[in-house]
Design goal:
The protein has 5 helices and 2 strands. By secondary structure, it is mainly α. The radius of gyration is 20 Å and the shape is elongated. The model has no long low-confidence stretch (mean pLDDT about 95).
């Protein structure tokens, strides 16, 4: 009985660490300000000719994509007065892989939360 309790306690500690890590990932993926700070840091608007407002709108659409079942990602932005696709086909494929990883992180978070709830009960 004692060994089972020790194992369950160790698993609870691991589950707590998983919850903390995955929660940070979830917040980062869904935080528009993180994307916007990257736009500013790397001068994305100046380098691409796409306004910061358009880039922020695109980031919001990307967040929606990551949290939906929609495939493939297709985000259009205005560059000057011309509408263009933001991502190339290669980037679209990459973002599908990223979305899959994000969904896995969400699943790990839910499993760890479930274990912690079971452990507490």
């Amino acid at each position: 009985m004692k060994v089972t309790q020790i194992i369950a306690g160790c698993l609870a500690v691991i589950a707590l660490l998983v919850v903390l890590f995955t929660s940070n990932v979830r917040v980062a993926v869904n935080e528009v300000a993180l994307y916007a700070s990257g736009f500013d840091k790397y001068h994305a608007s100046e380098n691409t000719g796409i306004s910061r407002a358009e880039l922020v709108r695109a980031a919001e659409e990307l967040i929606q994509y990551f949290n939906s079942n929609d495939e493939p990602v297709r985000i259009e932005v205005l560059r000057g007065d011309q509408k263009i696709d933001l991502f190339t086909q290669r980037e679209v494929l990459h973002l599908a892989d990223v979305k899959d990883l994000i969904k896995r992180v969400y699943s790990w978070q839910m499993m760890a939360l479930g274990y912690l709830a079971f452990f507490v009960v």
